[in-house]
Amino acid sequence: MTAPSRGEVRLFWRTLSRNQLAVVGGVVVGILVLVALAAPWLAPHDPYHADVSKVLEPPSGAHLLGTDQIGRDVLSRILYASRVSLAVGFVSVGIATAIGVILGAASGYHGGVVDAMIMRLVDLMLVFPRFFLLLAVLAFLQPSIWTIMAVIGLTGWMGVARLVRAEFLSLKEREFVIWSQSIGASAFRIIWRHILPNALAPVLVAMTLGIPAAILTESGLSFLGLGVQPPYATWGNILNDGKDSIEIAWWLSVYPGLAILITVLSYNLLGEGIRDALDPRLRQAVGRLARPGGSRPRERLDTNAGPAPYSRLAGAEVAELADAHV
To answer: Which among 218, 231, 263, 325 could disulfide-bond with 88, CB atoms 3.0 to 4.6 Å apart, if both were Cys?
Structure first.
């Protein structure tokens, strides 16, 4: 197994740092995570305290983003809702990634009947539109944050499985894998110690792009009343509360909508930046530009030097399979 060298890691960060949109997205994502963690200290009011004397107050000094139909502070509710939305995004994508990596690794390494069965399962899952599949499942379950996390995760692993399978099909033919098999290494050891670490780059991209998709899914379900139930605040159910008062209380729709927009856009910018930084063609271009005066000769690729530490999949293919995941 070949681990990424320090020079390759530095080249990755150099390529990523040259993408200004990705840097901005990463900074905003970091701020959003910090805001979610510090919500109990940043919130100016109790998000669940109702004050009927302050119903539908517009933004003011006392309530920066106004109040809702029962007098709750909108800013406090949006801050607390960020905790729910980000938790759903991270946990559901974690579940989907774990399932996709296990099934994709088994499919790509063993091939044959195992590959055929797993791929037919993937095809079967992709036949049904994901949102309608979620609606059908949630119709028989009690909506809660844990149910939403589990259902989104269990219906979103197919893209990761296809990514991992594609990487395994290529890597299992490399010399270091054949050598490990020849000395009697078990399939488990070869998969988890030698092949998988070299197949995780596209998975990282898919995870980064999957988080905003999960947040959008949770917001959509909450807007329809099938997501996290009141009194817990999510951006989706705040939008749902504001739809009936949009003509007289525009702030109930604008501010949670902006929170969803900024979060999803930031994750997408960061994910696309990571995808580009892991693209060998772009990294080689940055490496050539980084050499002073171009005096150092271009390094030749050694096909026998072991697996590339990052994915060889083109950015377009990663994006296509990531879309299947989300």
So the answer is: 218
Strand pairing partners for 73?
67
**What amino acid is encoded at 263 in this protein?**
T
Provide φ and ψ at 73, rounded to 5°: -70, 125
pLDDT at position 283 is: 55
pTM: 0.79
Domains of the chain: 6-39+73-325 (1.10.3720.10)
